[in-house]
Design brief:
This protein is of the alpha/beta class and 579 residues long. The strands form four sheets. A five-stranded parallel beta sheet has the order 7-6-5-11-12. Strands 1-2-4-3 form a four-stranded antiparallel beta sheet. The chain is built from 21 helices and 15 strands. The radius of gyration is 30 Å and the shape is globular. Among the domains are: 2-90, Gyrase A, domain 2, CATH 3.30.1360; 169-266, no CATH class; 454-570, Isoleucyl-tRNA Synthetase, Domain 1 (Orthogonal Bundle), CATH 1.10.730. Strand 11 (357-363), helix 14 (370-379) and strand 12 (387-392) form a beta-alpha-beta unit. It has helices spanning 2-18, 46-54, 58-68, 92-105, 135-153, 169-186, 202-215, 223-226, 235-250, 254-275, 286-291, 294-304, 339-352, 370-379, 416-423, 425-432, 445-450, 456-476, 494-516, 520-539, 547-570; strands spanning 31-32, 42-44, 75-81, 85-90, 119-123, 157-164, 282-285, 308-311, 314-317, 328-331, 357-363, 387-392, 395-399, 402-403, 441-444. The protein binds one RNA strand of 77 nucleotides through strand 1, helix 2, strand 9, strand 10 and helix 18. Monomer. It comes from Acidithiobacillus sulfuriphilus. Residues 3-90 form the Arginyl tRNA synthetase N-terminal domain. It is found in: Cytoplasm.
Length: 579
RNA sequence: GCGCCCGUAGCUCAACCGGAUAGAGCAACGGCCUUCUAAGCCGUAGGUUGCAGGUUCGAUUCCUGCCGGGCGCGCCA
């Protein structure tokens, strides 16, 4: 809709420039949607912006611009107001066009071309496969999936990826945890007490039980091979020692143990996300990165380019040369690469795959990590402006007043699956994106449960269902539905035009939300649209006897339904035709 | 201590890369169902945008300082 005004305004400004009345065009034209009806449907502050550079009074400039505006079938009138705003009042036809547009484009209404087919990679969740996803991950999942939908809808070529941290110490700890539970399954005495810092969740027992049913007691080893020296004070060191003993004792069979936990948990995560409507194009294994030597290669390259040095037996990356506040270890003195090293390799790999833009979604506690990754990218000669890092705050979980501490190892957490079963996918998806991702989210389970029947998501879905109810009613009473072409000029009421105007705001909101990477804007928009529809519905009889008026009103209603359905689809929420 | 994020109605949050009289939802209060779904609508009330300065036609938005909160500052991931 903004084009209806932007075009004549650009013409006017160009004309003034050619006539030498103003020096230059503004960098960009944007319009406000005034809150006050007296300020018109769209307002431009172009005269205020230009006034300074032109050395003119804003109101004088505005008058000149208005005088230069060509006639337009969409614009009813334009006024100069306040300090120098130009307020545009549009013809009803400008709003009717939204209805026509929505009905014509159907599920593509609101789609844009901003992305221009640009290849974007979006990585999100990427939780360590050491246990089921919890409600914190759910937020990242809902946010990432919605953002992916938004970017695709605005013309980006999006690939969603999950980075599987299947290498490293955490996986070994999981393997050790599974092994101890496995021994318990066999009824064998443990070589040590089950460690506090092992994974203690029940799912570990389940994995161990499955392992036993597959392998029997084949993985059992003599107690003497597993028991270590008692009295190790540091629990982390004790854990490392335990892992080492298990690896030695099991030899080649360690791989079976390792993948027993990984495979089962990863399958669970995939299944969970899929059921949540979150789909990935690729699951990228950290181990595969290691195995093909990509990590070593990335480190070698940093070394070759002189960005590294040896100190205390470790290999350091000179991150301070690229804006970080300290240097970072790539290769530890024990010969193992750091998480950072594989992440450098992973990001280099992403760009090598040809993505114009790479978007990472990380937990907000990783924000200190951004600088060093950017530093490494620059050191590798890559443009770190192509990397975008979005931070997602963890959801703080409450049960009533009581804050629930979440620890994966202790097995004390509410899983995403449990949440979905409790409040439903629709409510969960909607709740998660109802606020900005970089804000803390207080998730009260009691409240979520209580809201399950009076949830804001139902408010929006109900508006959608009401439209279909109208259509069903029309059929029952043998009142014809609107044909493809209806006389929208019959819609002249303020509410009807206002509702149609709101439809125009859908494509605008989509563009804005995608550009800002803020899906919550869609949720807010939908609530507003639903409210306007409910108001209209209550105030106006839709199913009137006269065919032309009924057709026009039903056309408006179906346009609303199309818009709601499209918006909900972007958020991964269903749009039921009946409730 | 240093760095990043945040302080907006009783609560949870918006506010369109500086715009006109700062908006919703929930909670509170008062109304609306023999006519298309009351999972709804209408109305009332609620604010010195943490504080103090600065930039300018104009600041919740940008800058500085202070107060308060969160996170980070490992050869962990």
């Amino acid at each position: 809709m903004k084009e209806f005004v932007a075009k004549p305004l650009r013409n006017a400004l160009t004309g003034l420039v050619q006539a030498g009345k103003i020096k230059a065009l503004p960098e960009r034209l944007d319009f406000d949607r005034p809150k006050q009806a007296e300020h018109g449907h769209l307002a431009s502050n172009v005269a205020l912006i230009l006034a300074k550079a032109e050395g003119r009074k804003p109101r004088d400039l505005a008058a000149e611009i208005v005088a230069a505006l060509p006639a337009s079938e969409w614009i009813a009138r334009s006024e100069i107001a306040g300090p120098g705003f130009i307020n545009f009042f549009l013809q009803p036809a400008a709003f009717h066009a939204a209805i026509r547009n929505a009905r014509h484009h159907r599920d593509q209404f609101g789609a844009g071309r901003m992305g221009g087919g640009e290849k974007v990679q979006l990585e999100f969740v990427s939780a360590n496969p050491t246990g089921p996803l919890h409600v914190g991950h759910g937020r990242g999942a809902a946010y990432g999936a919605s953002l992916a939908n938004l970017l695709r809808f605005t013309g980006f070529d999006v690939q969603c990826e999950y980075y599987v941290n299947d290498a490293g110490r955490q996986m070994d700890i999981l393997a050790a945890s599974v092994y101890l539970r496995y021994l318990e399954e066999l009824g064998v005495a443990l070589p040590c007490a089950f460690p506090e810092n092992a994974y203690r969740g029940d799912y570990v027992r389940a994995i161990a039980a499955h392992l036993r049913s597959r392998e029997g007691d084949r993985l059992q080893r003599p107690a003497g091979a597993l028991a270590g020296p008692a009295g190790e004070a540091d629990p982390e060191a004790a854990m490392d020692a335990l892992i080492a003993r298990i690896k030695t004792a099991l030899g080649p069979d360690y791989g079976i143990l390792h993948s027993a936990g990984l495979d089962e948990i990863l399958a669970d995560i995939r299944d969970d996300l899929s059921a949540f409507g979150v789909h990935y194009d690729r699951w990228y294994s950290e181990r595969s990165l290691m195995d093909k030597g990509a990590v070593a290669a990335a480190v070698e390259r940093l070394k070759a380019d002189g960005h590294c040095y040896l100190q205390d037996g470790a290999l350091w990356f000179r991150a301070t040369a690229f804006g970080d506040d300290k240097d970072r270890v790539l290769l530890r003195d024990n010969g193992a690469y750091t998480y950072f090293a594989s992440d450098v390799a992973y990001h280099a790999e992403k760009f090598a795959r040809g993505f114009a833009r790479v978007i990472d979604m990380w937990g907000a506690d990783h924000h200190g990590y951004i600088t060093r990754v950017r530093a490494a990218l620059r050191a590798l000669g890559l443009d770190d402006n192509r990397l975008e890092v979005l931070l997602v705050q963890f959801a703080i979980l409450y049960r009533g007043q009581e804050k629930i501490s979440m620890s994966t190892r202790a097995g004390e957490f509410v899983t995403l699956r449990a949440l979905r079963e409790e409040v439903g996918n629709d409510a969960a998806r909607f709740f998660y994106v109802l606020r900005r991702a970089d804000q803390h989210l207080d998730f009260d389970l009691e409240l979520a449960k209580r809201h399950s029947e009076e949830n804001p998501v139902y408010y929006i879905q109900y508006a959608h269902a009401r439209v279909y109810s109208l259509l069903r009613q029309a059929d029952e009473r043998s009142l014809s539905r609107p044909p493809a072409e209806v006389d929208l000029n019959l819609l002249q009421e303020e509410r009807e035009l206002g509702l149609a105007d709101l439809l125009w705001r859908f494509p605008e909101s989509v563009t804005q939300a995608a550009g800002d990477r803020e899906p919550h804007q869609i949720a807010f928009y939908l609530r507003e649209l639903a409210a306007a529809f409910h108001t209209y519905y209550n105030a106006t009889r839709i199913l009137v006897e006269e065919d032309p008026l009924r057709h026009a009103r039903l056309a408006l209603c179906t346009a609303v339904a199309i818009t709601i359905a499209n918006g909900l689809r972007l958020l991964g929420v269903s749009a039921p035709e009946q409730m």
